[in-house]
Amino acid sequence: MSEQALILDGESLTLDALRDWEATPRPAALAESARERMQQSVAAVERVIDQERVSYGINTGFGALARKRISRDQVVQLQYNLVRSHACGVGEALAPNATRRLMLLKANALAVGHSGIRPEVVETLLALLNADVLPLIPERGSVGASGDLAPLAHLTLALIGEGEALHQGEVLEGRDVLAAVDREPVVLQAKEGLALLNGTQLSASLAIEGLFRLERLWDAAIAAGALSVEGLAGSYSPFDPRLHAVRRMPGQIAAAEALRGWLSDSEIRENHRNCSRVQDPYALRCMPQVMGAARDTLDHARRILECELNGVSDNPLIFDDEVISGGNFHAEPIAMVSDFLAVAGAEIGSISERRSDCLVRGVNPDMPLFLTEEAGVESGFMIAHVTAAALCSENKTLAHPASVDSISTSAGQEDHVSMAPWAGLKLVQLCENLARILAIELMAAARAVELQAPLKTTPELQKLLKWLRDISPAHTGDRRMDRDIEELAEALLGLPEFK
């Protein structure tokens, strides 16, 4: 394996390393230390079977059937039955990048060495990942407790030669999936099906996607807000560092500093320095407070998800010769973080939509209504703002927490669930809406700044305008804006950073 390979040891994976790997893919491989720990846990499983000790998931049924003892000659069949019966996922397949992330997270969790699974099983999983043979994993079917069982069952089907995968645009089925990487189907041993199915990797993959997107969009929202300050001839005073130092909120201090990074020397500012307006609307004046709260939320989520990267979330777990059944598969930490991120994203969009409203309704008295060339004959940004308002309202619904909506499953045995996958799915959808809301604000703010020519904005914002105009031409009269909005939103989501 190349020296450039991403080595999985179950201990040292970070979000930054994950993001770098996703941006510049390279092979992933098990560390030798991980292989040794995994072999030790496999040996412990074999001793349980040899000594006929009753251990959940090794020689018992699952869920509400946990009291049913399984004979020694059926423990392997038990694993196959588990995988096949749990493959009940429905809906669209996960996006390729989410599938790659899920596969990597699953391999890294098993590499910790408490799951009773052979290294060669994980190496088969990594062979698929390294060749970009991606199992087709349905998005829906998990409640985020007892792990993401149904989606991970579809991953496991691919490993045993009974599933489907996507490779170079072609859908492979059955044994062809493994033939694409010159491998034979995995022959499951005791505990291995359960180790593969149990775990929170779908929930984590979706939450991380939301985090990565929101980190990019936070930077974009700061830039859009700064451009709106200039478009509205707003005051720089609310970003004075002394104000934020005495509030003592780390995110607020960081947000104000980021805004000051965009707002330096400006002819527009000098032109209105002595204007009669005393205070700006909250959508401008309170940006550090709102965006700062969002920044603190992102930082909190990053801490939690960084722990999850190297966490073990299947069940039961093996510690030396002791097999302990617990509840690490419960995805409540991820569900709550996903919900918290959704609230932050909704608020970033909400204050952006309010700034767009300020831009089109004449808060700056020198601006024409709806930023038109000729009011009445033209509608300008009237309906672009309506689109932002529609998306903003949709995000308020999507921000309703999923984690408070438990539902009992498995004949009451699994009587409290996290709903983390749904929290993650709607978080990703919310981010797509947010990118469009910010795109609309950027377009409107750019128009407002350009209407103040020959006065110039700050050098930093002039660079932003140039970048923006490479995607969306200057507004010189009514035209369709849907394509501009979508292209700009896609650019915002695709940027590794927006600064």
UniProtKB/TrEMBL annotation:
Subcellular location, record wording: Cytoplasm
CC terms in the record's Gene Ontology section: cytoplasm
InterPro entries: Aromatic_Lyase, Fumarase/histidase_N, HutH, L-Aspartase-like, Phe/His_NH3-lyase_AS
Predominant cellular place of this UniProt entry's protein: cytoplasm
Enzyme class: lyase
Top-level taxon of the source organism: Bacteria
EC number: 4.3.1.3
UniProt pathway: Amino-acid degradation; L-histidine degradation into L-glutamate; N-formimidoyl-L-glutamate from L-histidine: step 1/3
Catalysis performed (reactions): L-histidine = trans-urocanate + NH4(+)
Pfam families given in the database record: Lyase_aromatic (PF00221)
A GO molecular-function descriptor: histidine ammonia-lyase activity
BP GO annotations: L-histidine catabolic process
Keywords: Histidine metabolism, Lyase
Family according to the record: Belongs to the PAL/histidase family.
Protein name: Histidine ammonia-lyase
Lineage, broadest ranks: Bacteria, Pseudomonadati, Pseudomonadota, Gammaproteobacteria, Natronospirales
